[in-house]
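Q: I have 283 residues here and want to know how they pack in 3D. Can you give me a structure?
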Amino acid sequence: MMEKKTLHFTKMHGCGNDYIYFNCFEQTVEHPEALSERLSDRHFGVGGDGIVLICPSEHADARMRMFNADGSEGKMCGNATRCIGKYLYDRGVVKKEVITLETLSGIKTLRLTVKDGAVESVQVDMGAPILEPDRIPVRLDGERAIEVTAQLAGEKRTFSCVSMGNPHCVIFTKGVSGLDLERIGPGYENDPLFPERVNTEFVEQLGPNLLRMRVWERGSGETLACGTGACAAAVAAVLSGRCGMGEDITLKLRGGDLVIRYTGETVLMSGGATFVFDGTVEA
């Protein structure tokens, strides 16, 4: 019988988008796919939207691997990058106010705002959005898929597709708060238009540069926030003429607010990160 190993973890969240973080500078996590599926369960596990491994990197200050609640590995999570920045600084792993983080969608630069020796907020340079349909990927023709109309989730819809290292479908609509995402979300996530499935953002414009958003994430269902989704929504809002290029856009998510700025060359995301608790688990 194989002896079980005790792993140390930290629960953190960014705008309610909560993950279970493992410091892999100090320990090795085996079979993270199965571990994520087990620990993410909110009744029988720790509870979270997945797990994140904070690892050494040969190319940056640290490297992240993130796994969704269903065990699938994701390329990128914007809220998790902010939490990693706070963890690395506050726990003394990387004591710098500008930190580079290797992800499966490239190296991201984190700029930390520190107050009284602790990280108060983090701005992440998320890089340039991917707009070409074949790179998102989405099965649509043309150079961009902004405000296109096609069959989606069984109905004719107008939507925009953007990748921030992971694929997003942005739908501008009214009455976002009343949508039954548990019912409609899977139809978007698994639509044949998206060969790698898709994250879907339902966005309502509340005012100039002010948006409300709910998100259905592939592999996790509805989450309280999605950093890459907020970035994709802001890019779609700018390119469709709803918000201003180079201006701060506030995204009101169920778990809190994020501020996004799309410069035309890169996307900057700012927000907080919060420690919840530390714990141990047998694996």
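Q: Anything worth noting?
A: The mean pLDDT is 96. Helices lie at 32-40, 78-90, 181-189, 227-239.
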